Amino acid sequence: MHISEGVLSVPVLASGIALTAAGVTIGLKKMKDQDIPKIAVVSSALFIASLIHIPLGPTSVHLILNGVGGILLGWQIFPSYLLILLLQAILLQYGGLTVLGVNTIIFALPGLISWLLFKTTAGKSEKLDGIMAFICGSLAVLLSGILLAFSLMLTGESWLEVAKLALLAHLPVMVIEGIVSYFCLLFIKKVKPELLGGM
């Protein structure tokens, strides 16, 4: 779901940089020393999950896990994804440096929305937590797909078909992400509930 170099217009790139800078600033201000190990582990899992790409038409799909990542990190999902995408751009040539801001927004903003949504019902019952984890995991992928399509459409009408195909290609990933998020969150609640930050 990474957007490559040379695709987006300058105004879209500039907007992505500005929004990412704001999100990263808030995330870093909220970060405490004791959060660093959790952020490192979650960031590593997110990095690894996105390495397995399955080609599908003109695009490719992979696990994103930004829903469960957002639930675990909150605002810190922004610096986490910025670092993940920077390393992927440098080491693996996924995305690129000029699109770093937009790609960060595409992954981190839906993660933050998942965190806000999960907080509304967290801890009321294990069943509800599982349902919300599924919804948040699925919704994060859908929102990432919409942001990707929106970024491409803002660049020009010539990208409209690619935007539609990229969004459609990620519909099956939504279901898989919801299931993975469901099991991840229930497992974390049983073995390390403090990772949820008291939710």
If helices are DSSP runs of H or I spanning 4 or more residues, what is the number of helices?
A: 8
**Binned strand content:** under 5%
The strand count comes to 2
Work out the count of structural domains: 1
CATH architecture group name: Orthogonal Bundle
What ranges have pLDDT less than 50 throughout 5 or more consecutive residues? none
Tell me roughly what share of residues is in helical segments. over 70%
SS class:
mainly alpha
Shape: globular
The N- and C-terminal alpha carbons lie at a distance of 30 Å
What is the overall pLDDT average?
87
Order of helices and strands: HHEEHHHHHH
Widest beta sheet: strand line-up: 1-2
Kindly identify the CATH topology. Answer: Arp2/3 complex 21 kDa subunit ARPC3
Describe the main β-sheet briefly. 2 strands, antiparallel
Q: How many whole angstroms does the radius of gyration measure?
A: 16 Å
Instruction: Write down the CATH class.
Output: Mainly Alpha
Write a structural description.
The model has no long low-confidence stretch (mean pLDDT 87). This protein has a single domain (10-196), classed as Arp2/3 complex 21 kDa subunit ARPC3 (Orthogonal Bundle), CATH 1.10.1760.20. Strand 1 and strand 2 (59-61) form a beta hairpin. The chain has a two-stranded antiparallel ribbon. The longest helix is centred in the C-terminal third of the chain and has 30 residues, at 126-155. The radius of gyration is 16 Å and the shape is globular. It is built from eight helices and two strands, in the order H-H-E-E-H-H-H-H-H-H. Helices cover 70% and strands 3% of the residues. The protein has 199 residues and is mostly helical.
